[in-house]
Structures are given as structure tokens and as C-alpha cells.
């Protein structure tokens, strides 16, 4: 009997669900229909405004132009399922273009406008695209790709993630469940995260249209422009990323502005871990601004874990957690080696199961089968755990863990420590091959001007804060850490 009970325990599934009741997801509704439902009640309200040019688009114009663009696409011969590549920076019309494609039955595929022609060509070929939408400055990149091009009049190879309207509507239902009626029409959100990114088009544009708020559109990041927009546009909610928080805390440009004029209620940070010390410094400089961390991925239609929202009764997640499990989602953590699900407070690979899980990678059944198992669980490749109070914490990505003499070292932890050093402006930690250890942690460091600490000083600083095997073994001083348009370190896949 003892052996039998032991086997039952070993095979037990530890599946965690939301603490909140399930939310209903409407059947047979397209994403444009869902997010623009009730828009006529907010017809004259501004939906998108460009921070630099001041150009505004109202809800009436969003509805009208989405229909017009869809009609124009159909007149060009677009059929259901045709893929349209959109290579544009953040502009006020971006969501209209994306929703118009969907309303016409097409498939929206966002491309980084900073990509090289060869990279856009690969995306076009992989997706079997039928059309490209771009602007004047980027037309030269796409004109030779032998596809029709619509030019908008404005100033490792990626895997194509197939998301259905149902996937995206389900994600919005789950992520917006905490938005109370009195908040509808009241939120002004920063539109800086690139709209070709799932977070930008779904988490910012579509979520805001659904809630009849306003998006303040920024085509590129510049600190003074950001601060001016935050104040003059009275932005209440700002999705940003840790490097921007670092800038807001350490850059003297911030002191040129009267921060007492801010109407900012909360910032949400995702895409990379936020060092606890950096969070504290931000809270000290911007008192009263709530800092929320979130976690999401394209394969799960955007947001997967987040703080519930400002409404009372939804609970406040712990510092450094990415919040609670959202309604309609199931989560488990597995041992990456054995696949066995793990109990609370035990780090393992985060897996999620819900209506938001992608249909698969386009034309890539092998990668799809490695990512979504036979029971419908999406394997994220991220290491995390859930605690006794149902808070979820993300530790690092499996592929990024540095293997030092058999020990696993999380780059994010070392970066967080480095950023607490008063002389360090930015840092990135990567593995270096090593004959004896397998891999060693190496740090690229951006120092504040005029400061003279040497490599040994930096290594000693980290060593005094971590276990012996986690020490940084190599330090390089650099002028800057390369960032992608989503403000992720280019040296890393995070």
C-alpha cells in the first residue's frame, strides 16, 4: 500500500487556476467587432493621438476607416486567409490598418520597420503574404519583393504565430476582467511599445479600443518627448519596459520637468525582469504611481499573467511577482528534465492552458508539437513558480540560464544586482564558453560618465551579493547595450 500511495503522489498533477471566477467569452465574434462594440457612444472621443504631431483620430473615424480599409482590400482581390505584412512604425492609423485587414478576412502580420530588406523578404516568403502595407521611408525596402504595396502617407528567423480572432478575444476577456464600468472611457494610455509587437497591437490598441480609452501614439522613444507627452496628454497608464524605467530614474533630463503635473496612476512593465532596487528608486521619484509587472508571450495572444487592476476586491500582488493567474487560465510548473508537474514554491518551466493558446506556428508543425503538448499545454520556456498566496514569479528563461560547473545561473538576477551599483547605468549578462566550467557569466557594463571603477571593482561588488558559483567572471565596459525596438537587450532572447 505504501508503494502504491508513493506512485500516486509522484504522478499527481499540480495544476493552478485563477482565484477569480471564470469570465464569459462571446462566440463567433471577430476581434474588430469585439473591440469596437459600443464605439458609437464614444464617437467624438479621441481614440489615438500622436504625441509629437498632435494628429488625432476619433472613435467615429476608427469605425469608419476600418470599414473603408477592409472594403478597399477586398476590392484589391483580398480573400479570406490572405496574409498582409504591415511594416510601419507606431502611427495613429496603425490599429485601423490591422483591424481593417482582419475585418476583410485577412491575416495581419506585423513586421519591424527597422528590419533589413532580406529579413522582410523572409517574413513575406514564410507567410506566403499577398500584400504589404508600409510608409514612404520604408517603401524602398519592399518595392522589389514582387507584391502589391500600399503606401501609407505618413512622415534566427522569426516564427509566424497563428492567432485566431477567438484567441485574441479570449485574451482580452481574461485580461480586462478587472476593468469596472466607471473606468470605461476614462483611461489615457501610452502607445510607445511597438504596434507590430503583440503587446502593442493587442495589449494597448485593442484593449484600449474595447474600453473606449485614448492611446497617445509615439513612433520612437525619446526621453524628453516621453515626459512631455506624459504631462501634456495627461496619460494615466503607461506600459513601458525596465530600460525606460532606468532612464526615468537615473537620467538628469527628468529634472527639467515638473513631475507634480503628472496624472500618471500606474506603469506596467514587461519583456524583461525589473530589479527590485530599480523599482524602489522609481517609486521614490514618482510617488503614488503604481508599478505593475506583467508576463506574456505572442504564443498566448499577449498577456498571460498580470495584476488584476485598480478595482477594489481584486487583490494586490506582491512586489516582484507578475501577478495572479487570470480567469479562464490554467497554469502548471514542470521539471524541464522529467516533465513532472511541481508543487507550490518549486521553480519549473511555466506551462499554460486556455482558449488563448495559439493555433500553432505557421508552416512549422515540428516547432508547434515541441511547444504545445498533446494535452493542450503551451510550454513557455520560462522558469517560474507560484507561492502559497497564488502569486506567480518568473525567474528566467530556460535557454538563457548559464550552466556554470553544473550550477544554473540566471542572467536576470546578476543584471538586477549590477543595476543597484550607483555608477552603473545599464548592464547585460551573457554566457561565455569556458573549457573548465562549461560557461561563465560575463557582463557588459555602461558606466556613468567620469566614474573610474575598474573590472575587478565590479566583479567584487557582485561577488559580495551572490553565492560563489554565481559570480561574474568577465567584465566589459561598453558605450551602450544594444536594444531592439521593444527595448529588449539585443544580446539576449528575453
TrEMBL record:
- SUPFAM superfamilies recorded: Acetyl-CoA synthetase-like
Outline the extent of the AMP-binding enzyme C-terminal domain. Answer: 413-487
Pfam families cross-referenced by the UniProt entry = AMP-binding, AMP-binding_C
Ranges for domain AMP-dependent synthetase/ligase come to 39-138, 153-362
- Which PANTHER family does the protein's record reference? 4-COUMARATE--COA LIGASE-LIKE 1 (PTHR24096:SF389), LONG-CHAIN-FATTY-ACID--COA LIGASE (PTHR24096)
Q: Which UniProt keywords apply?
A: Ligase, Membrane, Transmembrane, Transmembrane helix
GO molecular function list = long-chain fatty acid-CoA ligase activity
What is the protein name stated in its UniProt record?
Answer: 4-coumarate:CoA ligase-like protein
Amino acid at each position: 500500500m505504501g508503494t502504491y500511495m508513493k506512485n500516486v503522489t509522484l504522478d499527481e498533477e499540480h495544476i493552478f487556476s485563477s482565484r477569480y471566477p471564470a469570465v464569459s467569452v462571446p462566440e463567433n465574434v471577430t476581434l474588430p467587432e469585439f473591440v469596437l462594440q459600443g464605439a458609437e457612444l464614444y464617437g467624438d472621443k479621441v481614440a489615438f493621438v500622436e504625441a509629437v504631431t498632435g494628429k488625432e483620430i476619433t472613435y467615429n473615424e476608427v469605425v469608419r476607416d476600418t470599414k473603408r480599409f477592409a472594403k478597399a482590400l477586398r476590392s484589391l482581390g483580398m480573400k479570406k486567409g490572405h496574409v498582409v505584412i504591415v511594416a510601419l512604425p507606431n502611427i495613429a492609423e496603425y490599429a485601423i490598418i490591422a483591424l481593417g485587414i482582419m475585418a476583410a478576412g485577412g491575416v495581419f502580420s506585423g513586421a519591424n520597420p527597422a528590419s533589413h530588406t532580406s529579413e522582410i523578404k523572409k517574413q513575406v516568403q514564410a507567410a506566403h503574404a499577398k500584400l504589404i502595407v508600409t510608409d514612404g521611408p520604408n517603401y524602398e525596402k519592399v518595392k522589389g519583393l514582387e507584391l502589391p504595396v500600399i503606401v501609407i502617407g505618413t512622415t534566427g528567423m522569426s516564427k509566424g504565430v497563428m492567432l485566431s480572432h477567438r484567441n485574441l478575444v479570449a485574451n482580452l476577456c481574461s485580461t480586462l476582467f478587472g476593468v469596472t464600468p466607471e473606468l470605461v472611457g476614462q483611461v489615457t494610455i501610452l502607445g510607445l511599445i511597438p504596434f507590430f509587437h503583440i503587446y502593442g497591437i493587442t495589449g494597448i490598441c485593442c484593449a484600449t479600443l474595447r474600453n473606449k480609452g485614448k492611446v497617445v501614439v509615439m513612433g520612437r522613444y525619446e526621453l524628453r518627448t516621453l515626459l512631455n507627452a506624459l504631462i501634456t496628454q495627461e496619460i494615466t497608464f503607461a506600459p513601458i519596459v525596465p530600460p525606460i524605467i532606468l532612464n526615468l530614474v537615473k537620467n538628469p533630463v527628468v529634472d527639467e520637468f515638473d513631475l507634480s503635473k503628472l496624472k500618471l496612476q500606474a506603469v506596467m512593465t514587461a519583456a524583461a525582469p525589473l530589479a527590485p532596487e530599480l523599482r524602489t528608486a522609481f517609486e521614490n521619484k514618482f510617488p503614488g504611481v503604481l508599478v505593475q509587472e506583467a508576463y506574456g508571450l505572442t504564443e498566448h495572444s499577449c498577456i498571460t499573467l498580470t495584476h488584476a487592476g485598480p478595482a477594489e476586491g481584486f487583490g494586490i500582488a506582491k512586489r516582484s511577482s507578475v501577478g495572479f493567474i487570470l480567469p479562464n487560465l490554467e497554469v502548471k510548473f514542470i521539471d524541464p528534465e522529467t516533465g513532472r508537474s511541481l508543487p507550490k514554491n518549486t521553480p519549473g518551466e511555466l506551462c499554460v492552458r486556455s482558449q488563448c493558446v495559439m493555433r500553432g506556428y505557421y508552416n512549422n508543425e515540428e516547432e508547434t508539437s515541441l511547444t504545445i503538448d498533446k494535452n493542450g499545454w503551451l510550454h513557455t520556456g520560462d522558469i517560474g513558480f507560484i507561492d502559497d498566496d497564488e502569486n506567480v514569479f518568473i525567474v528566467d528563461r530556460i535557454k538563457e540560464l548559464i550552466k556554470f560547473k553544473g550550477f544554473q545561473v540566471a542572467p536576470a538576477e546578476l543584471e538586477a544586482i549590477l543595476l543597484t551599483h550607483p555608477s552603473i547605468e545599464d548592464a547585460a549578462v551573457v554566457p561565455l564558453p569556458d573549457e573548465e566550467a562549461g560557461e561563465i557569466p560575463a557582463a557588459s557594463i555602461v558606466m556613468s560618465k567620469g566614474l573610474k571603477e575598474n573590472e575587478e571593482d565590479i566583479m567584487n561588488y557582485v561577488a559580495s551579493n551572490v553565492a560563489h558559483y554565481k559570480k561574474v567572471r568577465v567584465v566589459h565596459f561598453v558605450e551602450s547595450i544594444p536594444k531592439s525596438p521593444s527595448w529588449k537587450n539585443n544580446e539576449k532572447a528575453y
